Request: fold
Amino acid sequence: MNLGVAALLMLAGCGDRDADTGLCDRTPPLTYEGFGVGFMDKHCTACHSSLLREEQRNDAPVGIDMDSYVEVMRFAERIEARVVTPEVPTMPPGGGPTAEEIAQLNEWLACKVYPDAAIWFAEEGE
Ligand code: HEC
Reply:
């Protein structure tokens, strides 16, 4: 076996799901400033913003807000469960994000938001 193939097999064997799929190969990775804030403002913060009064939220629960990176990190699993995982997304209620936007959301959550959240909430002691 030549060394190049051996090195590739070792890389493939490292067991990191995202490394295996190449999902996180983009450098630099998608960021809140470069992708997230635009996505959230376009699709989510009309109802989920800390700047909205209760009667302005179209029944979105008070406290479920998407207008800061900390909130997005806090709700990352719920964002994934409502937008990325279902065959037909259940947020926003009327739909809207394109397949490409959802793919980028999935990439951003997996490659940046979850890793950042692990550090952030570990430091906060949660
Ligand atoms: C038109 C208003 C509106 C928009 C836009 C909207 N939501 Fe919601 N959201 C709601 C309402 C109403 C509820 C409560 C009912 C429910 O959970 O389906 C809710 C609940 C939620 C919850 C809490 C319930 C749970 O499953 O944990 C999350 C998380 C959420 N939305 C995420 C999002 C995300 C992410 C976006 C943008 C992609 C978004 N929403 C866009 C109205 C909205």
In short: The helical segments are 3-12, 17-21, 32-43, 69-74, 76-84, 99-124. The mean pLDDT is 89.
